[in-house]
Design a protein that fits this description.
The protein has about 240 residues and is of the alpha/beta class. About 45% of the residues lie in helices and about 15% in strands. The protein has helices spanning about 15-25, 45-50, 65-75, 95-105, 130-150, 170, 180-190, 215-240, and strands spanning about 5-10, 30-35, 55, 80-85, 110-115, 160-165, 195-200. It has a seven-stranded mixed beta sheet, with helices on both faces.
Amino acid sequence: MTDTVVFIPAWNEEENLPAVLDELRGHLPQADVLVVDDGSTDRTAEVARERRAEVLSLGTNQGLQIGIAAGYRWALDHGYSFCGRVDADGQHPAEELARLLERVRAGECDVAVGSRFVSGDGYAPYRYRPSAARRLGTGVLRRSMAVVLRRPFGDATSGLYAVNAKALPLLAEPFTSRAPEVEALIRIVDAGLRLEEVPVDMAPRAGGESKLRGGKAVRLVLTVAATLGLALLARRRRGRG
C-alpha cells in the first residue's frame, strides 16, 4: 500500500506516454500511477496498462478541465494522502515532481506548483525563453494573477502539481472554466491553503504537436481573462454578503 498517487491527464499521447511512465517509475517507485484517458482514439490506454498504470477512461474527449478534476477525484475517493500531477507530453520531469512532493510531505505547504519563471535554489532567472507573443501573454497573466491571488505568481498555467489531502476536495470539484490551472489556484488561495511556487526545469514537448497552437492559444488567453474576471466578481459578491 502507498499513500501517494500521481495522475496523468492524457489525450492521444501513445507516443510520449511510455517515457513519462518509465521516468515516474524510476524517480517515484513507491507511488501509484493513474492515467486519465480523455477519450483517446489511439493506444494511450493500452500503453498505460502495459506499463502497469491504472487507467480511468472518460469514454469521450471531455477536455482538460474534466480530466484534471477526475484525477483528483480518483485520488480522493481512494484515500490517498498525497497526489501529484504531470502532463503526458514529457515536459514535466519526474525528479522535479519528486522535489515538490517532498515539500508537501514535509509540511512546508499544502500545494506545491512547479514554475518555469521563478528562480532560486540553483535555478537561474530567465532560464526559460518563450516567444515574444508568449512573453506578452505571460506578462499580462502574471499581473492579473497578482491582483486575484493577492500575491505574485509567475507560472499560473503550470500543470506540475503536488498536493496533500487538504487540497483534494477542492480540486476534485468540477472546473467551470477552460483554464483549470488558473481556477485551481484561485480555489486554493480562497480556501486559505498554503501555496508555494517552486522553481523547476521543464523540458520541451517530447513528441507530437501541442494542442495549444494558433487560434486555440488565443482562445486560452481569453478564457483565462474571463476566469479571472469571474473570480473577482464572485469575491466581491461574497464580500457584500
